[in-house]
Amino acid sequence: MDTLMTASPQLTEPRRSSRAERRRLLRCDATSARLAELHAVRDLLADAAEVIEHGWVQHAWFAVATPRGERLLTARQVRHVYEYPVTGACLAGSVVLAAGGPDQARTQLVQRTLDLTWHALLDDLEPPAALCPSPQVRAMRLLDLTRWNDAPRRTQGEVVDLVRRTTSLARVHAAATRHQ
Question: How far is the C-alpha of 120 from the C-alpha of 85, rounded, in Å?
């Protein structure tokens, strides 16, 4: 009986260190995934800034050039983005367009980019506690971004500036992630 008692701690130590190593590796994987996502967000924001600099719109998601002239597209008409050349986009539309178009609107990359843009709008520099807010919270944040974009005296330069502040915020979050 005494031999079993003394052998037991020797058997559990390798298991304990193995579990600790698995946890460490899981943390490394999560950190790497978050850093890769933040890098992709920064790339997407760079493309979104170019879209806005090319043409910015208010009170619609996109502007397209049709044979009858420029047409503004609301959320219900976004399918026309694939039929006509896009000549402009709002803040949220530029992120969606930079990601590949309306079919990409619900992807994690677009959603997280819009989440981060909302945080930048509020000058909220702290990494969010919840990386995946509820659909209702995301919808309200998108409404905030849309209202901000459509505000009467808003300028194209201010929208580009918000996109650039969001890019800086992504860098802050990446540094915080590396530091953890």
Answer: 30
